[in-house]
Amino acid sequence: MHARIVSGSGHLLADRARWALSGPERRKGLIGSAPLETGEGLILDRAYQVHTFRMSWPIDVLFCSRDWEVRHVIRSMVPGRMSKFVMGGRYAIELPAGSVPPGMGRGDRLVVTEVPD
User: Which end of the chain lies in a sparser environment, N or C, as judged by fewer CB atoms within 10 Å?
Assistant: First the structure.
């Protein structure tokens, strides 16, 4: 199962976001994978902090609450970094760098819908 992620203003962030639900999936994240392409993403459940260690490309990261309210945005997080711990976060959405539109920030809501593979 994949997800489609759209901003409250209608901007398509991803139409092929996969879920990382288990502990091993969350720990692995994007390590060892090819860079994300436009429309791809990774949704990490119960992720209050992320890192880009052992990655070779930058990513955008949205931390969201349980009801998909944006709590924190990181644009173009470069390899070898650790994010801050985001209080009130439930999900971290990792996207290709440049995917998060200007002006999107804390308090914005996302619409996340399941789409079959």
Answer: C
